[in-house]
Amino acid sequence: MTTRKPPTGPLRKDAQRNRAALLDAARTVFAEEGLDAALEGIARRAGLAIGTLYRHFPTRMDLVGAVMAEKKRAWIKAAEAAVAIEPAWDGLTFFLERVCELQAGDLAFNDIASMRFPYAAGIEAARKRAYDLGRRIVERAQAEGSLRPDITAEDIAFIVWAHSRVSEATYAIDPNAWRRYLALTLDGLRATAAHPLPVAPLRPRQVLRAQLRLGRRRLR
Amino acid sequence: MTTRKPPTGPLRKDAQRNRAALLDAARTVFAEEGLDAALEGIARRAGLAIGTLYRHFPTRMDLVGAVMAEKKRAWIKAAEAAVAIEPAWDGLTFFLERVCELQAGDLAFNDIASMRFPYAAGIEAARKRAYDLGRRIVERAQAEGSLRPDITAEDIAFIVWAHSRVSEATYAIDPNAWRRYLALTLDGLRATAAHPLPVAPLRPRQVLRAQLRLGRRRLR
DNA sequence: CGAAAATATGAGGCATGCCTCAGGTTGTAG
DNA sequence: CTACAACCTGAGGCATGCCTCATATTTTCG
Description:
Two copies of one chain form a homodimer.
Chain A: H1 13-33, H2 39-45, H3 50-56, H4 60-82, H5 88-103, H6 107-114, H7 121-144, H8 155-170, H9 177-189, H10 204-218
Helix pairs in contact in A: 1-2, 1-4, 4-5, 4-7, 5-7, 5-8, 5-9, 6-8, 8-9
Chain A binds a DNA duplex through residues 2, 5, 7, 9, 11-15, 18, 38-41, 48-52, 54-55, 60.
């Protein structure tokens, strides 16, 4: 645990430039290779030495958090917009489409959406908010009678997981293919399509454990 | 390219035992860690040296092929049974449930089902047969009017991809959770649930490319 | 301009995993 | 029981990636 003196004032001009270059490279590389991309590759792509990367982002998650901040906000914004849309069914479809759009073609954000990383404070903070909004989106559509009543907010996790693999497989071949699969999923969510489900929904705690598990596997 | 003399007669008794131990260890480790599990770990778990593993299975895919042979057969068998079930809708659900059962809890078979590995002759051979059967299962159910007509056999790939991530996430937490998600998917496949789909189905060639892509990513 | 502070560099130590091969061990045929 | 083929072993070379730190460079501020 080496405690370097943390810089106090604003960054030096070269440091600012380098930081931006690192974020830029990281955005691309993470999107293409996922959260476990080689940090050395990111530094190389930014034209900087590996030590510089570590100076700006001491841990992988510091870098990831900085890169994902924008998309994280977009997710929340989509959810906030969705709870205001009438009819509520359109709010639900808007939300899911928007979320899937954010995931599509970005393997790292796919990971972020599907998994959990205990010590990534910046990322985990927003999740509570997203979760609450998700629950309201679901309940609103159920109250209106368009969404089948045997669904819970936790079932959204299934959709995110499923979509993450679908878009990983298809995005480079046809960047809109995932929309077909999402449409099929939505048809299964309509109240009019409902047939009894054979298994109880996951409880919130179980979703969390599943996400942690995926995360541990990914960044081993 | 070292060309060892290939063994001619039957295996020596100790070699037989070791081979079985390797397959046993590989089955477990591959299931838990996926197709990219460390071969050294498999040898260790079998209580053998790494060189022994390489003697029996010169390439990773030789080992994978041997381990997956049984499940591959089970897949075909399920498909063969499915085309004989009446009504055809029950054949379809039987098939998908069986396939998902095979995938559930076995990360390696998940990979095999979702991806393609050009130089794995033993595994690729069975795929044509599975594909033809899948097409018949779909067409039969459509002819009967239970399966929505805008689906193609290629859409089964979506289901396999989606399920692979769902079961990866949930199996250890609740080994039946995937059944809930599959039921939702099936509700979306019923003719009575159909709403227009926004995107054309993938063509066979595109599915192949997507599978190759996933495979390359996985075994980098 | 001339420090001093901030920053950048990249070689190098550590770990994991692939794969090979020289030399030791064991099964088996005669 | 002998001798040889088959087999097993594990050290070691190669590659990748993590992360650190002594040293070199650049910026900034008086």
